Amino acid sequence: MGRKPRLCGRSPVARPTSTTHIDLTNGACETRPVPEATLRGLLGGRGLNMLELGRALRRAGGAGRVDPLGPENPLIIGAGMLTGTIAPNAARFNVSAKSPETLGLGDANAGGFFAAAMRKAGFDRLVIRGRASQPSVLLLEDGQARVVPADGLWGMTVWEAQEELRRRYGPGTVSAVIGPAGEHKVRMAAVMTGKKNAAARGGLGAVMGSKGLKAVAAIGSGRIPVEDPARLRDLRIEQTEYLKGSRVVQVLGKSGTPFLYDVSNRLGAIRTRNSQDNFFEDTLEAAEIEKYSDRMLACTSCVVHCRHRNTLGGEGPEYSTIGLLGANLGIAPTDQVIDLNNRVNELGLDASSTGSIIGWAMELYQRKLIDSATTGGPLEWGDYGRVCELLEAITYRRGFGDVLADSSQASRRLPSGARDYLMAIKDLPQSDPHDVRYIKSFALGIAVASRGADHLRNRPTLDILRLPDDVRREIFGVETNPDPTAYDGKAGMVAWHEDIYAVADSLGICKFVTHGFNSPHLLGYEHFAQLIEAAAGWAFTPQELRQAGVNVVDLERVLNAEFGRTRRDDTLPRRTFEEPMPARATKGHRIERAAFERMLDEYYAVRGWDKEGRLPAPRRAEIEAWLAA
Amino acid sequence: MRVTVRLGEPYRRQAGVREIELEMPGEATVADLLAAIETRYEALLEGDVPPTVLLDDQIVDLAAPLRDGSEATLVWALSGG
After folding, report:
1. Which of A150, A192, A395, A476 has its C-alpha lying 20 to 30 A from A612's C-alpha?
2. What's the predicted TM-score (pTM) here?
3. In this complex, do A267 and B59 lie within 8 Å of one another by their Cβ atoms?
4. ω into residue A317 within 30 of 0, thus cis?
């Protein structure tokens, strides 16, 4: 199987034009060019991954029929169009497949250094099918893809495996790996690179594990060719200066995302004890986290440097991890939460899903829907030691951990009524720690997000309070309702963010430098168009670039329909509708069902979809043409 | 009247303190409070977005009157992560 080196990477042309198909079952490998019209329409990264996912699932018998842990489910790893170039913050890649966590659209985005190395090794996008006959590594080097035995790597943690790969193949080897969680097909296992960069959402590490693939290791000694290197260098300098003028960029470079904890907590919007409460201890705010940080780290070509290196041996934590492994589990000591962060990263678990699912189990125990006979012992809020045990039990599928390892799908193995307390949408546990009952645009955003309850698809982050009209207009580009608790006038801003985030994901650009994500003073369509022209030689107007975002969103809507998703799935957890927030400034707020349905109507209208959230026939035909090509 | 101001991020880092106390005139509003803070800490409140003010855990606008003993909290109106 794949013993001989295979020449299948892209040739060194000035545009990112190739997708490499690899079958782990028989070692077959083929690189195909991507037509220019397709690249202009979907750009790369997330956009092209979605296209390959749709095509592969159709070939395998249909999205609904494919076993997410079976060999026919494709694992797609795709770099953004600008990834690996010197464009600011162009480090990102997407991992996509049918999700074993949601049984629907699986897509996760990560930074770090892997994607640049993959491109420098000659590969822009991998579509990996089949199943290796033994634990394996996919080795990418100078246009060659080789499937080699993992030889002792299987069983290693995320950090150990990467270290061993560097020892075997040289210090310049950069890998995307799974930890023991992926090997044991935990439905919330991540694909990891570095100490904490995670393509975390949707359990795609389990898909990789199901294929017997421990790692994709890239040795990238080549160059990523660009159309106009001098122009790209000038743009890099110019845009970096612009970004450094942003206070948000400055703060992220010093405090990282933990500074957001205080914002949510003071408002009364930090998810606490599985969203039963909405505020928690100050021990998890940025100033406390910084006591355990000895420097800030960056990804490829980053100008922000938002990632803490912590003194407990890992990297992070992020705001999401603090919230979901801290407040959501009732764990207050700073060092304990940082330690949990390091543990999930080393085991290769999605911190958001893991924190959400353990919090769910703790509430079920509190409400006596499950007892110690089921859980194997007490499951009390704030019990750090018990959570440590559970992380291991989940990872290795031992005892009650085997149940929780199924994430949302565990509801099939738990008493009826358990699902009422699951904080998930489309079966994806909510990604971030912000309780959405107060800010209605946030609620709409996670309800319609294509991969499930996730803030990184469309969150209008600045819609917390009554920003001045001119500021809102500058950010959102459309007239919007300034009242964050209003239901009307929110759909436009959600759609606006959805489009630009889809473009950023497809270019490989980090959201921390993307216009509208926490600041109106970051890179927008015009900046992106300049970068594309310098890197790839194509002229885009801002409108054409936004249309590429619309294309990605519409394509994902078509794929979701093939997974059987309908308007009924664009909804929120029961608690969000029925239980008001208990304290602080947000006290009393919840989502009114009828008003939510109105908001959904408005959103579908803004997107040009019908009342059921379906694309009109002519638009559907355009998407079909791509899928059929 | 005396008002306690809790500085959320990123104001805490820049000012170097978590909490300050200010003596304000009797008819003062939240806008006056922000002006007093800017006098003590130059350019503290500049940035991509204006600060959001919570007064005794309630979200208020700039015209809201202060009360003796009030606790004001300044945060950025953001939620990404």
Report:
1. A476
2. 0.96
3. yes
4. yes
